[in-house]
């Protein structure tokens, strides 16, 4: 059995089963009740449709076989007495019309009772074609009409079955990885992210007792975020290596790129403070925002490092070059950061991109200040400037 909780604005709980759909419905209904009682979820539903009444013939194989009737014969005969068997098509101009073969009485009315509809065989019965019948044909005791009537005879449906009953069945059975599966799903209320809605019910959902052979799992946005995060971090080392290679080629030195990358983990100070103050959830979009901050911090580091190198190569005393570089680059770095931070304000109220906006705002504000303070200190340590 599986549990699924939702795509972007959809929460879903999926149960998969090896045998009984009734157990699936019972377990899913428990999950739906938990969702209905949550203030963070609304429009709770399931992906299975309601059961529908189905006309079922209790086919009796021994009886039907004794009169030469198969399941297909009974089904086609019942079809001819109800909707009709499509046998051909004719056209009225460009409009096609289907020709149906139906069983009706001499007055053109359908059978009054399904139990009495005539059931015919698709293949003529040759059970009566024996030695005695052949002798009767030769002597004239049996006519061809009588033999044909015997071969093409019909019997009432009641003689080929044990009866007709109405059974409530599922119109469609959903499957997950080849197993029967049912979802309990709903939407998070406006202003609440799917992850926050999931966390509000996760303990109750996972405490639902599952019978043997049943499992459950969370899907929807949770699964999509988990998979996306996996692919995101799978290529992150390669991106870091490329960035380091580019910085080494730019500065023609390994110490200066190392100084810049030593400042990158410090952006988490601003990210953590911003997330705690806003109360947002650190999910996939927040992770994307954090990774985007890496490029912004590298850019700020390059700007400051380039100014330091420019002043030192122009003959300025190293310690004075460090201080003057910070003073001269403080305004452009902070102004660039502030414009980005102000641009994130409209996204703060968005349930999906709000965490990303908070991450970028907090990480960029604190990260820019820390970068301007830490890079000169690390530069002095790495290059032994007293």
Describe the structure.
- By secondary structure, the chain is α+β, with helices and mostly antiparallel strands.
- The protein folds into 3 domains: 11-50 and 171-221, Alpha-Beta Plaits; 54-169, Multidrug efflux transporter AcrB TolC docking domain, DN and DC subdomains, CATH 3.30.2090; 235-382, Multidrug efflux transporter AcrB transmembrane domain (Multidrug efflux transporter AcrB transmembrane fold).
- The chain contains 13 helices and 11 strands.
- The chain has helices spanning 21-36, 61-66, 71-81, 131-139, 144-151, 194-206, 221-234, 236-251, 255-263, 267-278, 284-313, 318-344, 354-382; strands spanning 11-17, 41-46, 52-59, 85-92, 95-101, 118-119, 155-156, 161-169, 175-176, 179-188, 215-218.
- Strands 1, 2, 9, 10 and 11 form a 5-stranded antiparallel β-sheet that branches. Strands 3-8 form a two-stranded antiparallel ribbon.
- Strand 9 (175-176) and strand 10 (179-188) form a beta hairpin.
- Helix 10 (267-278) runs antiparallel to helix 13 (354-382).
- The two termini are 66 Å apart.
- Residues 1-13 have low confidence and may be disordered.
Keywords:
386 residues, alpha+beta, Alpha-Beta Plaits, Multidrug efflux transporter AcrB TolC docking domain, DN and DC subdomains, Multidrug efflux transporter AcrB transmembrane fold, five-stranded antiparallel β-sheet, two-stranded antiparallel ribbon, 17% strand, disordered N terminus
